[in-house]
Design brief:
heterodimer, A: mainly alpha, B: globular
Chain lengths: ~190, ~210
């Protein structure tokens, strides 16, 4: 299938955060200001793409041995290892970036979108190239969502007068709902399956 | 009877239960496990299946982690949790596939995503590693049930409005015009935000404190 179409679909009308509603915990927890949101977003793009690329051959290997049922367990181990490895590499060679990533990198291990991308390529029978494009595209779509939300919340925090119960995380849900409503407008512009 | 309830207030298990169900409701107060509670609450049956699945995985992994908590080195505890949680999630996934194939199909990848449900990991890290297995089990049960109650309540509203049905039985009459938006992502966000608001308002919970 067309790789450019897949990339567009994974960002807009199949946005992993606003349409599939995945990766919500960090999306809501870290979206208090744009700077942190961008840092987390970049880290997610990197990890989601890389782990999808690594998990694809791993799954092929599992298929040849007939142990697909263990895929979940193996994926989790790959993800945890990749994140750990990436952390060590970045700390060693790019210390400036490492200090700006801070705690976000290890947190990504439990971000559901990383695992979800791996599960989706299994469900949809993607080829290697499609998996790579979908992985990076989904990460990018998530990054857009968190930056949009963070930008609104940052302004709201200063100006708006909300009821106590809605303050903070409560209003984040309503904002996300409205952004998701806007993303429904993209329905049908591109497909994720052939 | 009154005496019984008065004494109940002082037992540890009761307080743990109360915390899990209401005072520290995982969805509304801690805002954990949101992905699944938003994504699969468009049908009540999905909500029940997911709630039971998460409760089972949380209870099993919490109890297991509590049992071996003295042998887990603290540097590798996260990976240890992941392996234990993955194992129990695979159990749930295979069980659903074997006995409820239609439901497993509808839930799709979300069953596998129980692994990354923050509630499971949260209970392991916040409670199970520091407490005996007995209380870890009660705590996990309470957290899982608190999550399931919100899920069922939210999915009831969404299913009735979106499809005019409850547990696939029509309840709204013939000429009901479905609110399509309730079955999609925005509906989930709006309904869950109402629950967060309601529960926080009842408890006078203030996030800024």
């Amino acid at each position: 299938m067309n790789l450019i179409e897949l990339f567009i679909a994974s960002i807009l009308n199949h946005n992993i955060a606003l349409v599939y509603i995945l990766g919500m915990c960090p999306l809501i927890a870290i979206s208090t200001n744009v700077k942190n949101a961008t840092g987390m977003g970049i880290a997610v793009v990197l990890v989601t793409g890389l782990t999808a690329v690594i998990n694809w051959p791993v799954y092929e290997f599992l298929k040849t041995t007939g142990t697909e049922d263990l895929a979940l367990l193996v994926f989790m181990i790959t993800i945890a290892t990749t994140v750990q490895f990436l952390e060590i590499l970045i700390e060693k060679y790019l210390p400036a970036i490492y200090s700006s990533f801070g705690i976000y990198l290890p947190l990504i291990t439990v971000n559901c979108i990383v695992l979800a991308v791996s599960l989706f390529f299994v469900n949809r029978d993607y080829s290697f190239a499609e998996t790579a494009v979908y992985g990076f595209g989904s990460g990018f779509g998530w990054m857009i969502a968190i930056i949009l939300l963070a930008a609104i919340r940052e302004k709201m925090f200063i100006r708006s007068d909300l009821p106590k119960g809605l303050m903070g995380k409560g209003i984040a849900f309503i904002l996300l709902g409205i952004i998701a409503l806007a993303f429904i407008g993209f329905t049908g512009i591109a497909n994720v399956t052939a | 009877m009154k005496k019984f309830f008065a004494r109940l207030n002082y037992t540890k298990s009761f307080n743990v239960l109360k915390k899990g169900f209401w005072l520290e409701n995982q969805v509304a107060i801690a805002v954990l496990g949101i992905c699944s509670s938003l994504a699969i609450t468009n049908k009540v049956e999905n909500a029940i299946a997911m709630g039971l699945g998460v409760t089972f995985v949380t209870m099993a992994s919490s109890a297991f982690i509590a049992l071996i908590r003295n042998f887990i080195p603290s540097q590798v505890r996260m990976v240890t949790y992941m392996v234990i949680i993955s194992t129990f999630t695979i159990v749930v996934q295979m069980f659903l596939k074997a006995y409820f194939p239609a439901l497993a199909n509808q839930l799709g990848a979300y069953v596998g995503l129980i692994i990354t449900n923050c509630i499971v990991m949260g209970r392991a890290e916040a409670y199970a590693v520091k407490n005996p297995a007995r209380y870890a089990l009660v705590d996990a049960f309470a957290s899982g049930m608190g999550y399931m109650i919100v899920l069922i309540a939210a999915s009831t509203i969404r299913e009735v409005l979106a499809f005019g049905t409850f547990l696939n039985m029509p309840v709204m009459g013939e000429d009901w015009v479905p609110w399509t938006i309730m079955a999609l992502a925005p509906g989930g966000f709006f309904i869950i935000s109402l629950f967060v608001w309601f529960i926080r308002d009842r408890q006078q919970f203030d996030e800024s404190k």
